[in-house]
Description:
Shape of chain A: globular
Oligomer: homodimer
Number of domains of chain A: 1
Amino acid sequence: xxxxxxxxxxxxxxxxxxxxxxxxxxxxxxxxxxxxxxxxxxxxxxxxxxxxxxxxxxxxxxxxxxxxxxxxxxxxxxxxxxxxxxxxxxxxxxxxxxxxxxxxxxxxxxxxxxxxxxxxxxxxxxxxxxxxxxxxxxxxxxxxxxxxxxxxxxxxxxxxxxxxxxxxxxxxxxxxxxxxxxxxxxxxxxxxxxxxxxxxxxxxxxxxxxxxxxxxxxxxxxxxxxxxxxxxxxxxxxxxxxxxxxxxxxxxxxxxxxxxxxxxxxxxxxxx
Amino acid sequence: xxxxxxxxxxxxxxxxxxxxxxxxxxxxxxxxxxxxxxxxxxxxxxxxxxxxxxxxxxxxxxxxxxxxxxxxxxxxxxxxxxxxxxxxxxxxxxxxxxxxxxxxxxxxxxxxxxxxxxxxxxxxxxxxxxxxxxxxxxxxxxxxxxxxxxxxxxxxxxxxxxxxxxxxxxxxxxxxxxxxxxxxxxxxxxxxxxxxxxxxxxxxxxxxxxxxxxxxxxxxxxxxxxxxxxxxxxxxxxxxxxxxxxxxxxxxxxxxxxxxxxxxxxxxxxxx
Lengths: 272, 272
């Protein structure tokens, strides 16, 4: 289940990663049910760990979700994170930057949304869009892309050194799976609200996006802020893998029972 | 279940409201189990309505939670809102204002945190603290309190006229119940992190707080932004009442199936 970690400074070819993979789980109804049960268990654990994170209030978790259109970023949030206490979990969706945001460096608006101590922050798309869509459409030079990779690494290092654990997921679907999902949105009137003509436009650049993702992950996967490639053709396996990594990330913090405030003698306190 | 709505411009005496009330539910294990089952059902409905609110993206819901220390504001968020997709739900906890915030009017920081279209916003404490704690400790004049009541009403009217439905809850516990809950925090080492010496200090002003709450609710309960007094000595009844009101508020929006984006001929669209 843990084979999809992108090693720092490695060459990366997404062709070697099967978006259809389901690990030890069979691609049958019973395999799916088993994976779902395992996911439920992990989500229970996640909720407990999140309570502890919140109560301690000295660490934070940042989850970055990236992937092609329809790869399941919204689905992950809905299915993996819906059991979590919303008081300790903030989702940030980065849209087209505003005029004010464009008047600042590309990390300005992102830094403002970094999770506070005690919180889980989920970036549904992120600062990585600024080395993807811009690159695919030739809006920034290769030199600038490299510069941004370095800036991103240093920014994430700052967060990490300040107590934030970072996990980054690339939801890996095949081009055929995207076709199926877009057709579903088109043919099912209940799902049409999610459809955007831009999705068809961007799909024409599939190959360039894959290259941009490969370069991006190879350059920005670090020990403190690793990229994980998540086989995402099957939603149930995708959810399992992510729940598993998120639990791991929280466990790595070794969160203790939260401390009582200092300087109070609890044995002599009386409530009138 | 709906008798606890504060009528606009009415005189209000909290002594007439029983914090121990459980409505049609018996104060027994079986009454509690029945109420919990009813709450679960409402939470399921709430999740569905929230999905629709998010997909439509043209209305918002603002939930304001106020009440004495230990009255259960955090508990409501945990138990009523944990099933909700965190992508469409933002909790804001208002703490002591920062120096920058104090350099602005008291609604400045609050306005920034108003829920966006498609979102449920939950204020855990709110702008109402600025007519409560300040008043109880004589930090603002009666004239200023009155002025703030008017300013709050106009602010909430603006939000309401812009598509936000507002529901405000006062979690009503008795002084004896607070004593029990504070003692629990003191005696249970696992709960001590929630304890603050300020809680004991503020408890000394119980009577003044009750008066401040009464005046505040009488002055600021409007048709668009009503106050509800929630009997909160029993957590299971408190959760039920709030889930019920939140579902009502979402239903009042009469949210339709979200519309497909305009100008697209879905019948001729082809995905290559």
